[in-house]
Amino acid sequence: MLVIRDYLKKMRGQGKSPPRTTFCDMFWSWFGSFLGIATVGYLNYSILAKTDALLLIGSFGASAVLIFGAISGPLSQPRNLIGGHFISALVGVTMLQMFSGTLWLAAALAVSTSILLMHLTRTLHPPGGATALIAVIGSSKIHALGYMYALVPVTAGASVMLIIALIVNNIPANRQYPKFWL
User: Fold this and answer.
1) What is the pLDDT of residues 64-113, one digit of tens each?
2) CA dihedral in degrees (94, 74, 59, 53; nearest 10)?
3) Residue 79's domain spans which residues?
């Protein structure tokens, strides 16, 4: 019984919530995320629409939160953004190809294996888990891309967002992005 009580105590949490973000940081987070998603979305729905190519995927929404809203965190840095998405896309496509008859298994293996490989390569980026999952549960258009999914939309779209993050996050004097590259 003591072991269970000690185990459950761990779930109480410790410490306090972080301090409230300044209005200035909120504005730049909003502006950067708007510009990043708008740019990728514009390319997706106007220029690339004629080619039937895809550039905008759901996991980029979560990446925007990190690279514009939590710019100092290790999971938000360029290495993690690009590497985490790329590795996860490759893993997701591989798991879909290996286990296409059992999608629940492909989905679970895609996410868990991408987390493992992101840890091993020091590129942990939480939206990468969604990128791996999208490769498995995405539309037939995504499935048809095969390993090209890792390049376009994943790496190309993440790169566009990175360029926007580099520009916008360094406009105000009190913000600096990135903290590290490698």
Assistant:
1) 999 999 999 999 999 999 999 999 999 999 999 999 999 999 999 999 99
2) -70
3) 23-168
Cβ-in-10-Å burial (0-12, 13-18, 19+) of 150 comes to: buried
What six digits make up the tokens of 70? Answer: 């939590």
Q: Let me know: does 117 contact 91? Beta carbons within 8 Å.
A: yes
Q: Is the pTM of this model over 0.90?
A: yes
Whether the Cβ atoms of residue 54 and residue 145 lie closer than 8 Å to each other = yes
* Number of domains, the chain: 1
Q: Give per-residue pLDDT as tens, 13-70.
A: 888 888 899 999 999 999 999 999 999 999 999 988 877 778 999 999 999 999 999 9
Alpha helices in 70-139 (DSSP H): 78-98, 103-120, 127-137
Residue 28 maps to a domain: yes
Q: Is residue 175 part of a domain?
A: no
Contacts of 105 (CB under 8 A, 6+ apart): 99
Within 13 A of 71's CA, how many CA atoms are on the CB side?
26
Within its chain, how far is the Cα of 9 from the centroid? 32
